[in-house]
Every structure is written in C-alpha cells, then in structure tokens.
Amino acid sequence: MGKKTTIPEHGIPKAELIEEIKNLKEQDVNWHGGNAFGYVYHTEDEHKKFTNEVYSLYASTNALNPMAFPSLKKYEAEVVAMTADMLGGTEETVGSMTSGGTESILLAIKTYRDKAQSGLFKTKSPEMIMPRTAHPAFEKAAHYFGVKSVRISLNEDHTPNMEELKDAINKNTILLVGSACEYPRGMIDPIQEMAEIALDKKIGLHVDSCLGGFMLPWLKKLGYDIPPCDLSVEGVTSISADAHKYGYTAKGSSVLMFKDSSYQKAQYFAFADWPGGTYASPSLGGTRPGGIIAASWAAMRAMGQDGYLKYAKITMETTEKLMKAVTDLPELFICGRPDMTVFSFGAHELNPYIISDAMESRGWVMDKMREPRSLHLIVNPHQAAVTEQFAEDLKSIVEEYKEIGKRGMKKKYPEGSASLYGMIDMAAGSKLVVSKVKDYLADQFNEAMHPEDSDES
Ligand SMILES: *Cc1c(COP(=O)(O)O)cnc(C)c1O
C-alpha cells in the first residue's frame, strides 16, 4: 500500500501552493515552445491571458438555468449563432454549447436515436455508418446509446470506400457520419456525395468538424481548395465544431448545431416528477460551467474574422513548411492528401516509432498512429518559429538511423515509451488490447492516488 493522500489538516498558505503548482507544471509537456504537435491550441500569450481573465470572471457561475444568468444565455446563443454563420448555417439553425467534441458527438447520436424512435418508422436496432477514420467518440456514443456503428474501409488513397458505404445502408440506418476533417490524416470526407446519399435515403448526416470547424472556413476564404463540407450542403443535418481547438478558447468548449429545430426535443432532457422541481437540461452534463461559455464568446469576438484569417494563413504556411521537411526526405512519406493544418507521415523502411522516440529525445512530441505506422502533427500558429529546427532534427535523425541500418544493426524502440495512443502497434481491434489499455489507464490514476513512498516525500 502506498502513501495515503488526505485533505491537509491545516490549510496551506496560498503562496506556497502557487509555488508548488508552478513546480509541478514544469513536468508537463512543453507546448509553449512549439515542440508538441497536438493537445494545446495557441496563438499568442496575450490572447490566452485575455480569455483566462474572462473565464475567471465567470468561473463560479452555472448556465443550467438560463433565467438565473441572462448574460450567459446571451453568450451561449451568440457563440452558437456565430459558429453557425461561419459553418453555412441559416436562420433555421439551432444548437448548444457542450464541454467538447466528445460531448457534441454523444449528444448528436443520442438525438438521432431519439428522433428516429419518435418517428413513424421506429427501428429497435438503429445503425449509423461512417468511414474507419471517424473519431472514437462515435464508438463511445454507439456503446452508450445502443446504436450500432458500421465502419467503412478505406481505399488505397485513404478515402472512404463509397460503394461499401452505399451497400451498408439498410432499413435500420438512421444516419451517416462524415468528418471535415478526420483526425488521422487531416482529410475531408466526401461530404457532398454523402449528403446526396443521405437525402436520397431520407436519413441524417452528421459532419464531425470538431477539428476543422474553426479552420476550414478561413482557409477557404484564403483561396485554398476546400470543398463544401458544412451546413450549406443540402443533406447535412448537423455539425459539431470545437471552439477549444482552432477557436482558440480555453478547454471545455464545443458547439453542436442542427439544421433546424425539429431535432431539439430529441436532444433535450426533462423530468417533471421530482420533489426538487421540474428539471430540464439541453446537454449531457448537469451543471454547465459559465466560465468557458463567457471565455468562448470573448475569444471569438476578440479574434474576429480578421484574426482567424491571419492565424489560419500562418498555420497553413507553417504546415506546408513542416510537410516539406518530410517530403524532402525520400525515406519518408505523407499519409494521404491532407486538406488542412493536420497531417501524418510514415517511413518506407525505417520504423517511424523509432524516429518519434529520437525526436522526443530532442524535445519534439508527436502521437504515434497505425495503418500505416505513422506520426501525427496538429499544427499551431506559434510553431511558425520552429519549422527549421524541426526540419534539421528530422533530417539528422533519419540519416543517423539509415547509417545504423546500413551497418546491419537493429535498434529497437524502448517498450516503455509507447504512449496510450501508442499501444496502436498491437493487433487491430483485439479484445486483449482493449482490456490492456483499460488496465494501463486505471493504473495511471490509481498509482497517482496512492503513490509509493518515494525518497522525496
Ligand atoms: C478532437 C476531436 C474529437 C473529440 O473532441 P474532444 O474535444 O477531444 O472530446 C472528435 N472528432 C475529431 C475529428 C477531433 O479532432
């Protein structure tokens, strides 16, 4: 048994705690310098400081009851309206803020399920169809809400096999899911083609624009070749976009929008037989933190269209430079044809996981992916400053390993370095992996709850 952690008997002086927190923070990934490709989205310190300030003004408030906090009601309504406008919405478009992409997706699938169940042609076993690249949150939704998910295989060029998709539709299908863009390759699914199918079959089409929602509209305005993939496409019935990604607000912010209000009752929940009164809630959680609603509203208004355009341009140009660092090396290749500021790359003969570990020893952080083995980069504006260093490090590492390879030596990547996402290299879809990954996650938390006595303490 490890050390027991309790609430300290006597309150600790706040200045001392701030010191402790500052020290602990040092252990975290150094995203600020631009070496980590993911997790944190960042423009400039001054913007972050501003959104944090607004957040703290509302940190204790609760938007659960819109009557109690009319200011939060206004912020949320305007965040949804601004996002809908950005993503091809009309006057009919409605929506809600949620805590993130996953909640938006869970809520969307629950809504489609309940709407289908209230319709004329009820299905007891609803199904949804999506390309294999769709985010695991859809699998979570399938699991939580009893909707079967059917995953479509990919063509050689990483696009979804549309014939397979059409063939998978049956009388139980309630919706299709497309991503703009999908996470693994940064590619936009054929949303227009999917929308035509959805219209023809009279089923829904949810576009997961959690990653691309706050980036693609600006790239399009800048003249990049972005196909229509939002609410402006007839047949798209809902869309999700994360403000806590390229919307550059604090974490805990996403917007789920439906093309019209006919879905709203299926989304909301109400209970009228409670001694505590009548309870109603629009999303999955109960208490709705006001801080992030106010911060999102303020972030979007502080950025403005000119701000989003400016940073989209910087980020895309930075992405192009980083991609060039990869394509300049014949040993490496880009996976598929990325449409925005997200891409992944693999290696022809080397194991990219080894490259990743070597890059990590120089401070770079990239997620490892599978099919094929590859490394993942989500690019941010502040990384404009590190593209040359990245190119230099990547080149020298690839050359070093080529030399090692020539001399017939094999260098294995250390087992322990595989991250949670990094357990990817094991057999696809195996029950064993699923169980192992859950053990790993549980251990991470349980050990932190009861740390082994160490010398420091
Ligand atoms: C991030 C992401 C999600 C999930 O969002 P969370 O905020 O992590 O819950 C869903 N889909 C895509 C494409 C994403 O990039």
Outline of the structure:
The chain has 457 residues and is α/β, with parallel strands linked by helices. It is built from 13 helices and 13 strands. The chain has helices spanning 14-25, 45-57, 70-86, 101-118, 137-145, 162-168, 191-201, 216-221, 264-267, 290-327, 352-361, 387-406, 431-449, and strands at 94-98, 127-131, 148-152, 173-179, 204-208, 238-242, 254-258, 269-271, 279-281, 332-334, 342-347, 367-369, 374-378.
Question: What report would you give on this structure?
Answer:
α3 (70-86) runs parallel beside α10 (290-327), α4 (101-118) crosses α5 (137-145) and α10 crosses α12 (387-406). The protein starts with 13 loop residues before the first helix and ends in an 8-residue tail after the last helix. It has helices at 14-25, 45-57, 70-86, 101-118, 137-145, 162-168, 191-201, 216-221, 264-267, 290-327, 352-361, 387-406, 431-449; strands at residues 94-98, 127-131, 148-152, 173-179, 204-208, 238-242, 254-258, 269-271, 279-281, 332-334, 342-347, 367-369, 374-378. The protein is built from 13 helices and 13 strands. It is of the alpha/beta class and 457 residues long. α8 links the parallel β5 and β6. Mean pLDDT is 92; it is low at 412-421. It binds pyridoxal-5'-phosphate. Pyridoxal-5'-phosphate binds at residues 100-102, 135, 137, 179, 182-183, 208, 210-211, 242.
SSE layout:
Elements: H1 14-25, H2 45-57, H3 70-86, E1 94-98, H4 101-118, E2 127-131, H5 137-145, E3 148-152, H6 162-168, E4 173-179, H7 191-201, E5 204-208, H8 216-221, E6 238-242, E7 254-258, H9 264-267, E8 269-271, E9 279-281, H10 290-327, E10 332-334, E11 342-347, H11 352-361, E12 367-369, E13 374-378, H12 387-406, H13 431-449
Parallel strand pairs: 2-3, 2-4, 4-5, 5-6
Antiparallel strand pairs: 1-7, 6-7, 8-9, 10-11, 11-13, 12-13
The structure holds pyridoxal-5'-phosphate.
